[in-house]
Specification:
- This protein has 7 helices and 10 strands.
- It is an alpha+beta fold.
- The protein folds into 3 domains: 2-98, Helix Hairpins, CATH 1.10.287.1260; 117-165, SH3 type barrels (Roll); 171-251, Alpha-Beta Plaits, CATH 3.30.70.
- The chain has a 5-stranded antiparallel beta sheet with strand order 4-3-2-1-5. It has a 3-stranded antiparallel beta sheet with strand order 7-9-8, with helices on one face. It has a two-stranded antiparallel sheet with strand order 6-10.
- Strand 1 (123-126) and strand 2 (129-136) form a beta hairpin.
- Helix 6 (186-198) crosses helix 7.
C-alpha cells in the first residue's frame, strides 16, 4: 500500500503541473479560438461577405485553431507530437487528393461569392446551361431553367467557361430582322418601322433605336430593327414588336417574302 501511495505521489509530482498546464492550454486556447472566430465573423460581415462564406471560413478557422491547441496540450504532457502531426498531414494530403474535384468546386465557389459575376435571381448562361440562379453554394450553383427544371452545376464547371449574365445591366438591345420585298419602297418600310417603335412606351429614347438595311438577301431586303429596352421588358417587347411588324406590313401592303429562308431572328438567350 505504501508503495502505491509513493508511486501516486511521484506521479502527481512529476505530471501534476503538466496536467494542469495542459488543461489550462485547452481551456484558454478554446476561449481564444472562440474570440478570434467572433472577431473574424464581425470583420467579414462588415465587409459584406456572403453569409455562406462567412460561416464556412469562421468554422474552418475555429477547427484549425482547436487542432493546434490540442497538439500544444499533448506536447505539454510530454507526448511526442511530431509523428502525430505527420500522420495528420499525411491524412490531409490523402483526403485532398481524394477530394480534389470537390476542392476545385469549393475554390470556384469562393471566387464566385467574392467577385460576384452573378447573383441570385439573375438569368445567366454558364456551364453549358442557361436559367435563373436560385442558389450559389460552396460547391454547386442551383439554377431553374425557363421550363421550370432544376439544374445543379458544379462551380468548377461554371467558372471554367464563359459566363453570360443577361440581367446584369439595366437595359438591353432587342435584335430583330424584318424582311420586305424588293418591290417595296424602302423609305416607306423604314417609316413604318419607326412608327412601330415610337408607339411603344417601353422602348427607350436613349439609347436611340437603330433601323437600317442589314442585308440584300435572295428574296428580301432585310432591315435590322434594334430598339433598347429595360431588361425586364426584353421578351415582351421582342414578341410584341414582331407581331406589330406583321400587322403593319399587312395594313400598308408591304410584302413579306414567303418562304423566308433569308430572314433570321437573332435571339440573345
Amino acid at each position: 500500500m505504501e508503495n502505491i501511495l509513493a508511486k501516486l505521489q511521484e506521479f502527481g509530482t512529476t505530471y501534476g503541473l503538466k496536467i494542469v498546464a495542459a488543461v489550462l492550454i485547452v481551456v484558454v486556447g478554446r476561449l481564444v479560438a472562440l474570440g478570434i472566430k467572433k472577431l473574424l465573423r464581425k470583420i467579414m460581415v462588415r465587409s459584406k461577405v456572403d453569409e455562406t462564406l462567412v460561416s464556412f471560413t469562421t468554422n474552418l478557422g475555429y477547427v484549425t485553431m482547436l487542432a493546434f491547441v490540442i497538439i500544444a496540450a499533448l506536447g505539454q504532457l510530454g507526448i511526442q507530437t511530431t509523428s502525430f502531426v505527420a500522420i495528420v498531414g499525411a491524412a490531409g494530403l490523402a483526403i485532398g487528393l481524394a477530394l480534389q474535384g470537390s476542392l476545385s468546386n469549393f475554390a470556384a465557389g469562393v471566387l464566385m461569392i467574392i467577385f460576384k459575376p452573378f447573383k441570385v435571381g439573375d438569368f445567366i448562361e454558364g456551364g453549358g446551361v442557361s436559367g435563373i440562379v436560385e442558389e450559389i453554394g460552396i460547391f454547386t450553383t442551383i439554377m431553374k431553367s425557363p421550363d421550370n427544371k432544376m439544374i445543379i452545376v458544379p462551380n468548377a464547371k461554371m467558372t471554367g467557361d464563359n459566363i453570360v449574365n443577361y440581367t446584369a445591366n439595366d437595359c438591353r438591345r432587342v435584335d430583330i430582322v424584318a424582311g420586305a420585298g424588293y418591290g417595296d419602297d424602302i423609305d416607306k418600310v423604314r417609316s413604318v418601322l419607326e412608327d412601330i417603335l415610337s408607339a411603344d412606351d417601353r422602348i427607350l429614347k436613349d439609347p436611340a433605336p437603330t433601323i437600317g438595311i442589314l442585308e440584300l438577301a435572295n428574296s428580301s431586303v432585310n432591315f435590322a430593327v434594334r430598339p433598347w429596352v429595360k431588361t425586364e421588358d426584353y421578351w415582351a417587347v421582342f414578341f410584341d414588336t414582331q407581331e406589330s411588324i406583321k400587322k403593319r406590313f399587312d395594313a400598308e401592303n408591304i410584302s413579306i417574302p414567303f418562304p423566308q429562308q433569308d430572314v433570321h431572328l437573332y435571339k440573345s438567350e
